[in-house]
Amino acid sequence: MLIGKGNIHPAVQEIASIFSNAGKQVYLVGGAVRDLLRGQKAKDWDLATDALPDEVMALFRPKGGKTPYFAVPTGIKHGTVTVYFRNFAFEVTTFRAEKGYSDGRRPDYVEFGVSITEDLSRRDFTMNAVAYKLPSGPLTDPFNGEGDIKARLIRSVGNPAERFAEDGLRPLRAVRFASQLDFKVDDAVLEAIPGAVSLTARVAPERIRDELDKIIASPKPSAAFLLMEKTGLLELILPELALCRGIEQKGLHRFDVLDHSLLACDFAAREKASPEVRMAALYHDTGKRLTCKIDESGVRTFYQHERESSRLAREIMLRFRYPNAVMDKVCHLIEEHMFHYEENWTDAAVRRFIIRAGEDSLPDLYRMRMADAYATSGLEPPQDYLLPLVKRVEKVLAAGRALSLKDLAVSGYDLKEVRVKPGKQMGIILKELLEAVVEDPSLNTREKLLEIAGKINERYSSG
Ligand code: ATP
Ligand code: MG
């Protein structure tokens, strides 16, 4: 028995005492119990109670502005109230039974006033259907969730096909937990997934995105994606990736495009890279299928596949309603991942590389490229793989040369002196000045730039 008072946060016990003082039962449920039984720290604390949602709201109603908590009815129809207390958000759910899943997404109605055991039986997997009575036990574990956690096994509560018919997200949750926890999906669960794919197709894209995000955040995302491929979920959710199976590559590559993409994503995860880098690694070669050509000597080429991959990645992320800022970052990393540094690059070439990549994106772009290199051979890239480029970039940055319009010795305002009109033309001229200065930093003085700007302006005006 791994759960004891010592590993339950004191704030949880404080909340629990508010329930028990009011004569109500309260249990720790969900991920917290699962994590504690695995011997891990719990991340978030979900509670289940026999108190009705209105009663929970009343228990945590601020009294005279002095109480350290407040409650928000986040899903009151389904019995969920969120209680904010000491920097935690507790999801408090009333014991409930769910009835009639006619749309394969959510119950038609819920019924309160049931026991904890009945509440546990509506949950998806045995490992998620264990409750710990606060403050100090015992465990209620009607489906041997503790045994399955020990065996690292994902088993449905009841018949998997029936449970998937109630909610088409559950198949995806099964494979997500497999990679998140490094558990095995029980054969009966795995076998029921192909028949449930048409139900998963009806689930809201936001719910699917949340699962994809958790897969990508897991230590080895490929575990989930391979299970998705095997069960038909990948073809449904990410057909762009599923189609990469069997696309062979040239020369140095050991893997087809799908295995290569999964290895790249695993590497990014192992390096604890940001979600954007992990997604860029996953989608960076999806365009290869569409750009594959065989040249005269029989070699496969994928000319400009990075553009096509970026377009497909944006389509995927639009479909799952990712925020624009995330889409832009991922697509930028994909578009720029094909740089080929050589020692004979001039300083100007290094400056142009920095401008294209964006100084802030450089660390992510290096990580993306390391992931790509690893996934090409399946071998660790040498420690100094990108070092020559990184050093050159550092040197160029240290020289403090102009790399953006704001570093120019003149502004748009100054250009009026040489009769450049504000607007589009001024923008173009400023860009040309930057290009000139990137090529030859000694031109970055007010006098010289005004002279060049005047000449360009004349050319435009007369042409
Ligand atoms: P994590 O928070 O790490 O994703 P969790 O198990 O706490 O894992 P939540 O989504 O917070 O997952 O849900 C809390 C509990 O509610 C789950 O442990 C499970 O018992 C139940 N649950 C959540 N989603 C479903 C679902 N789609 N079908 C059935 N039960 C579910
Ligand atoms: Mg949770």
CATH topology of the largest domain: Hypothetical protein af1432
What low-confidence regions span 5 or more consecutive residues with pLDDT below 50? none
Rg calc: 29 Å
Termini separation comes to: 84 Å
> Structural class, judged by helices and strands?
alpha+beta
- What is bound: which ligands? adenosine-5'-triphosphate, magnesium ion
Helix count equals: 24
Structure, explained:
- The chain is α+β, with helices and mostly antiparallel strands and 463 residues long.
- The chain has four domains: 5-143, Beta Polymerase, domain 2 (2-Layer Sandwich); 152-237, Orthogonal Bundle (Hydrophobic Seed Protein), CATH 1.10.110.30; 247-401, Hypothetical protein af1432 (Orthogonal Bundle), CATH 1.10.3210; 405-462.
- It has 24 helices and 13 strands.
- Strands 3-4-5-2-1-8-9 form a seven-stranded mixed beta sheet.
- Helix 14 runs antiparallel to helix 15, helix 14 (257-270) crosses helix 20 (362-377) and helix 15 (275-283) crosses helix 18 (324-335).
- The longest helix has 17 residues, at 446-462.
- The protein is globular, with a radius of gyration of 29 Å.
- The model has no long low-confidence stretch (mean pLDDT 93).
- Adenosine-5'-triphosphate binds next to helix 7.
Q: Which terms would index this structure?
A:
two-stranded antiparallel ribbon, 13 strands, 463 residues, 24 helices, Beta Polymerase, domain 2, binds magnesium ion, 49% helix, seven-stranded mixed β-sheet
